[in-house]
Amino acid sequence: MSRPSQIRFLSRSARLYDPVVRAMGFSGLWHELARRADPAPGAPCLDVCAGTGGVALALAARGAQVLGVDLAAGMLGQARRKAREQGLAARIRLARMDARRLAIPDRSFPLVTCAMALHEMAEAERARVLEELARVASGRVVVAEYRVPERPLARAAFLLTHAFEFLESDDFARFLARPMPERLEAAGLGVETASDAGPYRIWSCRVSA
Question: Which of 58, 97, 146, 203 could form a disulfide with 34 if both were Cys (CB 3.0 to 4.6 A apart)?
């Protein structure tokens, strides 16, 4: 599925997104990422590829002032609805924006997050988005993605259970071929900690000087 087709699909299926990803454990991941990001009360945060607002809402619930951006208008609509229902609308702004070309000045946010989006992109897009995260961050960048096993049997089981990603994602094979820390370092993000959250991993980084 091409990236434009993927964005259209996500917009059309936004109402079904949360039930599906909750079954995959995303809800726990959103809250764990926010816990580990630990924003200061009132601190400005940017959540890139925000989707239906899982991470953005979790950060806002901890007192942050969050800007969530995504290309899929339908997903942002769901995020706005959830923000109102959870009483968090005053702490969240949502905007349609391309993560490859963020309309945000350099070093604007002390905390930038991005969860479960990079694996869906083509290789060149992944690199560009990570560079943009590093550009707009003035402090930390926290990224969550699949924890890809290294042992052959565990890796084979992972590939079998995630076969759908080869159809959904632009370039899942090349996502698997390169370790995430290498990608982060290449974008100017120094990894400080890497911790597991179920089948996912959260990397907390600092922008390299």
Answer: 58
In the chain the first and final C-alpha atoms are separated, in Å, by 37
Walk across the sheet containing 200-207 and list its strands.
Answer: 92-96, 65-70, 44-48, 109-115, 137-146, 200-207, 189-197
Say if residue 1's pLDDT is above 60. Answer: no
67: pLDDT strictly greater than 80: yes
Contact 35, 195 (CB under 8 A): no
CA dist., res. 55 & res. 61, Å (int): 10
> Are 79 and 60 a contacting pair, CB within 8 Å?
no
- The pTM score is 0.91
Q: Identify the pLDDT of residue 163.
A: 82
Q: Is the pLDDT of residue 112 over 90?
A: yes
At residue 27, φ and ψ (nearest 5 deg) are -60, -45
**What is the full DSSP assignment across 80-108?**
HHHHHHTT-GGGEEEEE--TTS--S-TT-
Residue 124, number of CB atoms within 10 A of its CB:
12
Closest by Cα among 97, 124, 120, 122 to 112: 97
Contact 123, 182 (CB under 8 A): no
Query: Could you name the CATH architecture of 3-186?
Result: 3-Layer(aba) Sandwich (3.40)
Q: What is the pLDDT of residues 2-37, one digit of tens each?
A: 566 666 666 666 576 676 767 776 788 999 999 999
